[in-house]
Amino acid sequence: DTGVSQDPRHKITKRGQNVTFRCDPISEHNRLYWYRQTLGQGPEFLTYFQNEAQLEKSRLLSDRFSAERPKGSFSTLEIQRTEQGDSAMYLCASSLGVMDGYTFGSGTRLTVV
Amino acid sequence: DAKTTQPPSMDCAEGRAANLPCNHSTISGNEYVYWYRQIHSQGPQYIIHGLKNNETNEMASLIITEDRKSSTLILPHATLRDTAVYYCIVSYPHASGGSYIPTFGRGTSLIVHP
User: Fold this and answer.
1) Which positions in chain B touch A94 (Cβ < 8 Å)?
2) Is-contact B74 B19, C-beta < 8 A?
3) Cα separation, B38 vs B87, whole angstroms
4) Taking a C-beta distance cutoff of 8 angstroms, is the pair A48, A61 a contact?
5) pLDDT tens profile A11-66
6) How many angstroms separate the Cα of B16 from the Cα of each of B43, B67, B78?
């Protein structure tokens, strides 16, 4: 297990389409996080899972966004009816303990045209 | 909003120590200071964290002032590959309790030059 994997690396979609991203965390990490990052800004927290339970959701996570982690392993982030403002890098991270540093994936860059 | 203040940019000569400051004057007693860095087009990379004692690992040293209102990340011998955005973060417990979710600011863009 070499780290956190995200798929796809890049996604271009037309406005109004739905997109889904996948994150595979480090296998023994039970905590998983999604962040969004726009150009020139730091990552913004979206949501957090501990095992399969979604424990935290940011106000940034509108009703068009949904995240799942059905078996406490990989996670998916779906955006419905994409808008141009959704264009960003979507980052996934995982950690073992609550105070441990996070391991981030390389992200999925979404472009909505 | 981020609870930390960092200079937007710094530069350092290759081989010299890079000292990156961070102010976190409103830090509370159970909050840790974390440092991450992000190289262009990659996800952030965890560097180090601490509560009140100075910490050192293979990447860097973290110096936290006695009043914990500021800290400094030290890269002892900066290389060109250390050019990145460095984020200083104070972790805090969410209202639902128990989970510490870092809030990233805009960080310091460190440029290491030959």
Assistant:
1) none
2) yes
3) 8
4) no
5) 999 999 999 999 999 999 999 999 999 998 999 999 999 999 998 888 888 899 99
6) 26, 28, 6
B101 to A42: CB separation less than 8 angstroms, yes or no = no
The dihedral through the CA atoms of A92, A44, A46, A60 has a sign that is negative
**Gap between the Cα atoms of A64 and A46, Å rounded:** 13
Rounded Cα–Cα distance for residues B88 and B78 (Å)? 18
Instruction: Please report where in the chains the tokens 């441990």 appear, as a residue.
Output: A100
| Tokens matching residue B14 | 């290759």
CB within 8 Å of B78: residues ≥ 6 apart: B12, B13, B14, B15, B16, B17, B18, B110, B112
In the chain, the amino acid numbered A35 is Y
The predicted-structure confidence for B26-43, as pLDDT tens digits, reads as follows 888 888 899 999 998 899
Cα A31 versus chain centre, distance = 13
**The two structure tokens encoding residue A95:** 């950690």
Q: What is the CA radius of gyration of chain B?
A: 14
A105·B43 Cβ contact <8 A: yes
Name the CA radius of gyration of chain A, rounded.
Answer: 13
As given in the structure block, the two tokens for residue A68 are 């799942």
The answer to whether the CB atoms of A99 and B32 lie below 8 A apart is yes
Is A45 at the interface with chain B, CB within 8 A?
yes
Most A CBs within 10 A among B34, B52, B96, B101, hence the mutation to make, goes to B101
At B80, phi and psi to the nearest 5? -60, -30
